[in-house]
Write a structure and sequence with these properties.
The structure holds 2 protein chains of 2 kinds. Chain A is α+β, with helices and mostly antiparallel strands. Chain A has helices spanning 2-18, 33-37, 51-56, 133-137; strands at 39-50, 62-64, 75-81, 84-91, 103-108, 116-119, 126-130, 140-149, 152-163. In chain A, strands 1-3-4-5-6-7-8-9 form an 8-stranded antiparallel β-barrel. Chain B is mainly β. Chain B contains 4 helices and 18 strands. The longest helix of chain B is centred in the N-terminal third of the chain and has 19 residues, at 2-20. The chains are: A alpha+beta, B mainly beta.
């Protein structure tokens, strides 16, 4: 009986002795998402969204309009200067429309976690909402540009682009 | 005898006053959560009658919020505190004991329309404390529910400029005529008009549609490209109708003309 007790105590001690906290691994340096934006991007897909339908939970929320016009001929070039957003040039190619601003300076709302890209300055500037960072890692970019009636956003185009 | 008549009359007067009190009027009377509305309250006969200024204290009622909480999250500072209302909630006096407040519920509450089933509120003094508290009873208004109704003709998106992609859709299951319900839909005719109703160019005919659903036929285009309006002429509206042959015949039949007004959109 006494042997069983000793064996049990030793077993429990051995089990607990084996339990050691794991060392935390290094998180690593944060990804430089602005650097990922640099380059020449070509439009590959355009989806039109009905903002009201999305908010109301109605059917017919979006429609792929890539083939309606030569939207895939548009390109966007973003440059950096010392790691910071510098200049952009938007070429709509033979598409009927692309970005309302064609060239100038560009900026982001947050260098670490950019959510919005502003292309141009002053009255001609346009702000687009950047999509998933996961896409950027795969040399793809998605942004949404809104269309407004008065001050209310009623419709949007979601552009998908591939780095050239 | 006179005393009894006086008491009965006084009681009836108070009852009438109570019934008249706290009248709520919303403009427009029928509204959706996304609409801009004006709420007008007559506080006659309440514990805030004669007090100036007055403030709205708003919250979302069940089922969105089973425990009503002050929640105008779209306004910095929200309702404020019970003893010191947020100045952004100050109502405008429009007459003796009549106060009004304007809002767009989706923005005011920072909520999606589907979450705004009933808007609860009361009217109070800046400091609502005291015995009795300086407030009206809880009041409420209800926006019209958002309901999607499938129709014979539908434009996607419902709001698009003449330079945007526009898709016109025909749901044959909702056809309003017998022939339109029977035709084998193949094409669409579109005409464009200025804001003054003057036709721009000729009606485009024989535009091939695609089947986008079991009973739905669609055609996508950019009005400015299809009609190329001259100079600064703006396309204000389009009219369209879908067509096709009746089975076993060469007879072309059409749906009824539908009209769509194009708004001006900006970036």
């Amino acid at each position: 009986m006494k042997q069983i007790l000793i064996i049990t105590i030793l077993s429990v001690a051995a089990i607990f002795h084996a339990c050691r906290p794991d060392d935390y691994k290094e998180v690593g340096t944060p990804g430089d998402r602005v650097a990922l934006l640099e380059g020449t991007w070509k439009v590959t897909r355009v989806v039109q969204q009905d903002v009201d339908a999305i908010q109301e939970g109605f059917p017919y929320k979006e429609l792929d309009v890539t083939d309606v016009a030569p939207f895939t001929s548009s390109t966007l070039r973003l440059t950096l200067n010392d790691g910071q957003p510098a200049t952009f040039s938007a070429n709509r190619g033979t598409a009927p429309f692309f970005l309302p601003a064609t060239s100038g300076a560009w900026s982001v709302d947050n260098v670490s976690t950019p959510g919005e890209i502003t292309l141009g300055t002053g009255a001609s500037a346009v702000t687009v909402q950047l999509g998933s960072y996961v896409l950027l890692g795969g040399n793809k970019m998605q942004f949404t540009i809104s269309r407004k009636q008065g001050d209310a956003t009623v419709m949007a185009y979601v552009y998908e682009l591939t780095k050239q | 005898m006179y005393k009894r008549i006086f008491l009965v009359s006084a009681g009836m007067f108070l009852l009438v006053m109570q019934l008249l009190a706290q009248t709520v009027t919303v403009t427009p009377a029928a509204f959706k959560a996304r609409d801009t509305i004006t709420i007008e309250v007559d506080v006659t006969g309440t514990d805030v009658a004669g007090i100036e200024p007055l403030y709205i204290w708003a919250f979302l009622d069940a089922p969105m919020n089973p425990n009503p909480q002050p929640s105008p999250n779209g306004v910095t500072g929200g309702n404020g505190s019970w003893t010191s209302s947020n100045e952004a909630m100050r109502m405008e006096k429009v007459g003796p004991n009549k106060w009004r407040f304007g809002m767009r519920p989706t923005r005011f509450f920072a909520e999606l329309p589907a979450n705004i089933v009933e808007i609860g509120f009361l009217v109070k003094a800046k400091d609502g404390s005291g015995t009795p508290e300086k407030k009206t009873k809880n009041l409420s208004i209800k926006p019209d529910p958002s309901v999607f109704i499938e129709t014979e003709n539908r434009v996607f998106p419902p709001k698009a400029d003449a330079q945007d992609v526009l898709t016109i859709n025909y749901n044959q299951a909702k056809a309003s005529t017998v022939n339109a319900g029977r035709m084998q839909v193949t094409d669409v005719e579109i005409a464009a008009y200025t804001e003054n109703g003057v036709q721009i160019g000729e009606t485009k005919t024989g535009l091939t549609v695609r089947q986008s659903g079991a009973t739905i036929y669609s055609y996508s285009f950019i009005p400015n490209l299809l009609f190329a309006p001259p100079g600064t002429t703006r396309i204000g509206s389009i009219r369209y109708r879908f067509g096709g042959k009746l089975p076993g015949t060469n007879e072309m039949v059409y749906s009824e003309w539908a009209e769509y007004q194009l708004p001006v959109l900006t970036y």
